[in-house]
């Protein structure tokens, strides 16, 4: 099927690989003009080129989500160069192991500056752009199955994702008056470079093979398979489109049945 431009613009952070890349590719296929933002622009340059480049509605941008001005600059560039702004997907994040007795001030500052502050800066920048353009919009952020149930070995990561869910609920109430919806998607165990690193590091720390590391995270999946990035992108595509207009303040689990509410 030939791609049809839908007249809308989305920005995806952490779009160079994994879930972020899958989201950007799906939104572009759905007709969005997409800004692929990442701290590693070599990766987003490659993805944007594979989608046809800026003339085809795929723009590579540098972003450091821990830096508020960098986030505002990326949103402004997307708005100006792609001709509008309608959706932000605050996807960028990190997931280091964090044994309770080894947590440091530096580790807390680093992970919260990316996983939580990045969502806050993205929400601020997107809301400002929507209001400047005189319309509502959609703010979407990455939570996690580990933001619904605390997971062992990744206490700081779980804490940041619980924080994202709480911030999202408040932001949804505050921004509804402007026609802005605010939601999160909560992946489970997804086959991405970040998850591969977590599984390997878990196994290495226990002196076990990598397969053992994966098993520590996958044994509770009801559908009995690891998620692919496209599974998550499907849900983000729904949250980005008009079919989700009456949904706000929610965290949609995409975990194959690990957590039941």
Structure write-up:
InterPro entries: 23BDH (IPR014007), KR_dom (IPR057326), NAD(P)-bd_dom_sf (IPR036291), Sc_DH/Rdtase_CS (IPR020904), SDR_fam (IPR002347). It is an enzyme of class 1 (oxidoreductase). The structure is a single chain. Strand 5 (137-142), helix 6 and strand 6 form a beta-alpha-beta unit. This protein has 261 residues and is an alpha/beta fold. The radius of gyration is 18 Å and the shape is globular. It has a 7-stranded parallel β-sheet, with helices on both faces. It has 9 helices and 7 strands, in the order βαβαβαβααβαβαααβ. The chain has one domain (9-190, 228-254): NAD(P)-binding Rossmann-like Domain (Rossmann fold, 3-Layer(aba) Sandwich), CATH 3.40.50.720. The longest helix is centred in the middle third of the chain and has 21 residues, at 155-175. Helix 7 crosses helix 8 (210-218).
Order of helices and strands: EHEHEHEHHEHEHHHE
Parts with pLDDT < 50 across at least 5 consecutive residues: none
Individual helix count:
9
CATH class, anyone?
Answer: Alpha Beta
> Helix amount, in percent?
40-55%
Mean pLDDT: 96
Q: Roughly how many Å apart are the termini?
A: 37 Å
What's the main sheet like?
A: 7 strands, parallel
Structural class based on helices, strands and sheet pairing: alpha/beta
CATH architecture: 3-Layer(aba) Sandwich
Protein name: Diacetyl reductase [(S)-acetoin forming]
EC number: 1.1.1.304
InterPro entries: 23BDH (IPR014007), KR_dom (IPR057326), NAD(P)-bd_dom_sf (IPR036291), Sc_DH/Rdtase_CS (IPR020904), SDR_fam (IPR002347)
Catalytic activity: (S)-acetoin + NAD(+) = diacetyl + NADH + H(+)
């Amino acid at each position: 099927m030939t791609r049809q431009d839908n007249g809308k613009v989305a920005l995806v952070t952490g779009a160079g690989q994994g879930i972020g890349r899958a989201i950007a590719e799906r939104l572009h296929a759905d007709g969005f003009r997409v800004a692929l933002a990442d701290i590693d622009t070599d990766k987003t340059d490659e993805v944007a080129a594979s989608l046809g480049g800026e003339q085809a509605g795929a723009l590579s941008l540098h972003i450091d989500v821990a830096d508020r001005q960098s986030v505002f600059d990326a949103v402004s560039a997307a708005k100006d160069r792609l001709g509008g702004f309608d959706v932000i997907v605050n996807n960028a994040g990190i997931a280091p192991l964090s044994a309770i007795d080894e947590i440091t001030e530096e580790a807390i500052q680093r992970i919260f500056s990316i996983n939580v502050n990045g969502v806050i800066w993205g929400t601020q920048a997107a809301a400002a752009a929507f209001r400047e353009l005189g319309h509502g919009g959609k703010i979407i952020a990455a939570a996690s199955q580990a933001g619904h149930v605390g997971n062992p070995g990744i206490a700081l990561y779980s804490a940041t994702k619980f924080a994202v869910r709480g911030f999202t609920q408040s932001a949804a109430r505050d921004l509804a008056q402007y026609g802005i919806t605010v939601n999160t998607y909560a992946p489970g165990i997804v086959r991405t470079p970040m998850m591969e690193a977590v599984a390997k590091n878990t196994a290495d720390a226990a002196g076990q093979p990598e397969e053992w590391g994966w098993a520590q995270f996958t044994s509770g999946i009801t559908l009995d398979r690891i998620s692919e990035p496209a599974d998550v992108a499907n849900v983000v595509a729904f949250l980005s489109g008009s079919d989700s207009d009456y949904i706000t303040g929610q965290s949609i689990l995409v975990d194959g049945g690990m957590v039941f509410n």
